[in-house]
Amino acid sequence: MESKKFVWKFTNQRKLTASEFAKYFEKKVKETIRKYQMPIGKLSKKGLKAESINKIIQSLPVRAGKLNDNNLNDISNTILCIVMYGDKDKLRKFLPCNQPLYFLSEKEILLYAKLKRIKGKIENPKGKSKQIDDFLVSLEKKNPDIRLNVVNALLKSYS
Predict the structure, then answer these.
(1) pLDDT tens string 122-143
(2) Domain holding 126: CATH number?
(3) 130-142 vs 146-157: helix axis angle to the nearest 10?
């Protein structure tokens, strides 16, 4: 009997094979677009995140507006940076509106790109704080869902 090769393990210990993970990733992007009524249009930007989004949305009907390739890592970093150093009124700008990768981490994006043979590298957005990112990475060792918790706290505070 052939054993399954798992490529992803959630914090609840559920495991996914390569094809299951690709379906999960694509479904998550499409659900985020639908739930937050995001625009649907090809990103002209190059890079791993943009190419991943373009691959997923190619079968969706176009909807006016521009998409952004920020992901969970970028957004959680920016939220904490604003909370610690900035104007709290700017937090509203980081609610999901045009970021299909809003709930997906860089690890997930890298794995999806590897599985779908998408070439490129992840570009860090301007203003991303290395200190805060290092802090989040250290917290992830104890709480792997910390970035999602930061984003969910923002969503709850504005709902």
Answers:
(1) 887 777 788 999 999 999 999 9
(2) 3.40.50.620
(3) 110
